[in-house]
């Protein structure tokens, strides 16, 4: 790869649909969910190790989790843990990193990767990102496209246009974030769409120019902050400006409009990507027994290993985190999450609705959220 | 009612299909399961209060639960808590009480009633038992017949014969304990059968004569024990004789053969009987919310009241006994039993199979049984 590659990892969001395992106080990206001892965040940094040095790897996180992030990633310099004063959605988070990197290296290529996704094949992932940097260097805002398997309404969809250059890069004719269900169905059936895997690879100058065009207020705020970043006024400026930044995702703020202007490209990614959005999805990607059951043990040693007894039980996802005996009889396609203070039982096809449950708990002021 | 009525309550069995609520160390009859503060045993004694004085009420229980039984029933005289040295099934337990009562009152009418069944209408229950005492006084081994609602294979079935006398008493033409499923189906479809509710009303002399005829060894052993009961040798004789008694239920030992000899009668009982054999059954008899869910809280104050959050959930039985938040989303017809050291999840139509699970735990030497 020509030049230094900068990796940016926005680590925000509590993973509501993974409640009661994931909590506001201990979000998804800090968890070991994959049967290894690495948290999703650590696994993300490890995976990016082929592409970026620790010195050019940045994590953007919130005040609540800055300490945990810093401790989980001892190889990263202190200065590379960017702490947001408050959550302002992904455009502010990614934009902050882009502005800071641009101040250091104006034409740098950076990639942004979620802290809490799973990738099965790290080498294939690195190859796809390298292929995307070709398009990024040529001035495209690059994405990685995943072949969709079902009409998921929580993702962005990329409609492919013509090839750009001799490599794998294709122009994106349309970028549609979170389409309605019927639209998602037609996209999947057409065979012309990829899922956007929330991976963005671009030259920081190209991204910031597009941000200036589409979101001038956000751009101006980030520039003020980046300008003050290495000075004595950093905290004062951050404190003043950050709360005024528009709260919007990068998909809506930049990508949809950039695609309409012909500025977005994509490369296909076939590396076992999964956003681990809910327990059903998690059950699909982890190792299962001969009856399709998945038991997601903890590796952190916080509780004793649970006894698990699944009798005549199929395709069930069990998350034992209380040290208690967890038993099921005659159950199929169920999710059972057993934590020290809360239990969840939910069919796998209702895994998305865990969010509603958490919303309901929040409304009641329940302390278990 | 003419003469003193003696009530006998065999309190044995751990209620395996109610695991993990019911344990070998804390069996079903000691539990509050009905939303009131009385245990099933206490409710049984209360219900019999219309028919028998505490002085003529006996409980037969095992060594493990003698103290708990005695404390739950402070009104019963010490001498009326009959403690078996080891479990020898129901014929030995009920026969012991019959022999001891016979030594006190040779022609007494006694009734035997399980310690862990539910009866909704106590007055109707008392009326049925009073009607049965007519047949008992006339020399029949009386039962109470419940109109069957489904082909249950765990019960005894009574085929009715001709009326006896002017009251409700009918002779039982056939007594079949635990028929195979196909047989149970044909019984229920015929409309000629009742379930035996494990209630037996008879003159102690009639029962002991029939025991002598069908089970002479059991009869002889019980006579030796009863003879020694009020003397200094009670414990020595019990210790010697009890382990030699045939281990057999009263249904097989006496009732099937007595019915074949024309000695069994029945009266219909329509008082909301339920044997609370499993969580599904329990869910059918207790008060449910508008979606058919039943939450069986504890009244014993051992744990804090649990938060329960059932979102889009129907006909589900929740037994919260750990003080944790119990939540379910999109679940129907499920059983969720949450105790401090073990969790069970099971569809209601598999409630019988909890026994298999417990057997499997026993095989493994698991301490949670």
UniProtKB/TrEMBL annotation, chains A, B:
UniProt domain Nucleotidyl transferase: residue ranges: 7-289
Gene Ontology terms for molecular function: GTP binding; mannose-1-phosphate guanylyltransferase (GTP) activity
The keyword GTP-binding is assigned to this record: yes
MannoseP isomerase/GMP-like beta-helix domain sequence ranges: 312-361
Documented EC number(s): 2.7.7.13
Gene Ontology biological process terms, A to Z: GDP-mannose biosynthetic process
InterPro entries hit by this protein: GMPP_N (IPR049577), ManC/GMP-like_b-helix (IPR054566), Mannose-6P_isomerase_type2 (IPR051161), NTP_transferase_dom (IPR005835), Nucleotide-diphossugar_trans (IPR029044)
Alphabetized SUPFAM superfamilies for the sequence: Guanosine diphospho-D-mannose pyrophosphorylase/mannose-6-phosphate isomerase linker domain, Nucleotide-diphospho-sugar transferases
Pfam families cross-referenced by the UniProt entry: ManC_GMP_beta-helix (PF22640), NTP_transferase (PF00483)
NADP is among the record's keywords: no
Keywords annotated in UniProt: GTP-binding, Nucleotide-binding, Nucleotidyltransferase, Transferase
Gene3D superfamilies in alphabetical order: Spore Coat Polysaccharide Biosynthesis Protein SpsA, Chain A
Substrates-to-products reaction catalysed: alpha-D-mannose 1-phosphate + GTP + H(+) = GDP-alpha-D-mannose + diphosphate
UniProt family annotation: Belongs to the mannose-6-phosphate isomerase type 2 family.
PANTHER family named in the record: MANNOSE-1-PHOSPHATE GUANYLYLTRANSFERASE (PTHR46390:SF1)
Protein name (database record): mannose-1-phosphate guanylyltransferase
Organism name: Planosporangium mesophilum
């Amino acid at each position: 790869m020509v030049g230094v590659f900068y990796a940016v990892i926005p680590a925000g969001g509590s993973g509501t649909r993974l409640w009661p395992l994931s909590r506001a106080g201990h979000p998804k990206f800090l968890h070991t969910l994959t049967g290894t001892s690495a948290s999703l965040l650590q696994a993300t940094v490890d995976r990016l190790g082929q592409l970026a040095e620790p010195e050019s790897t940045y994590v953007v996180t919130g005040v609540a989790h800055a300490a945990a992030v810093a401790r989980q990633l001892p190889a990263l310099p202190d200065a590379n843990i960017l702490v947001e004063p408050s959550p302002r959605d992904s455009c502010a988070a990614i934009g902050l990193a882009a502005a800071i990197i641009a101040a250091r290296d104006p034409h740098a290529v950076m990639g942004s990767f979620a802290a809490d996704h799973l990738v099965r094949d790290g080498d294939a992932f690195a190859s796809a990102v390298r292929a995307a940097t070709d398009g990024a260097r040529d001035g495209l805002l690059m994405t990685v496209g995943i072949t969709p398997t079902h009409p998921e309404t929580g993702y962005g969809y990329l409609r492919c246009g013509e090839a750009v250059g001799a490599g794998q890069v294709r122009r994106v004719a349309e970028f549609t974030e979170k389409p309605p269900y019927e639209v998602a169905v037609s996209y999947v059936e057409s065979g012309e769409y990829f899922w956007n895997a929330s991976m963005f690879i671009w030259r920081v100058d190209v991204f910031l120019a597009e941000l200036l065009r589409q979101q001038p207020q956000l751009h101006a705020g980030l520039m003020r902050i980046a300008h003050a970043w290495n000075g004595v006024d950093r905290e004062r400026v951050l404190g003043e400006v950050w709360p005024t930044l528009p709260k919007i995702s990068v998909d809506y703020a930049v990508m949809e409009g950039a695609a309409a202007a012909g500025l977005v490209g994509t490369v296909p990614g076939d590396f076992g990507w999964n956003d681990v959005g809910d327990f059903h999805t998690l059950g699909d990607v982890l190792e299962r027994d001969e009856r399709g059951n998945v038991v997601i043990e903890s590796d952190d040693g916080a509780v004793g290993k649970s006894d698990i007894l699944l009798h005549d039980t199929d395709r069930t996802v069990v998350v034992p985190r209380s040290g208690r005996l967890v038993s099921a009889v005659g159950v199929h396609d169920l999710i059972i999450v057993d934590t020290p203070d809360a239990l969840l039982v939910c069919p796998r096809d209702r895994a998305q609705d865990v969010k509603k449950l958490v919303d309901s708990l929040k409304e009641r002021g329940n302390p278990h959220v």
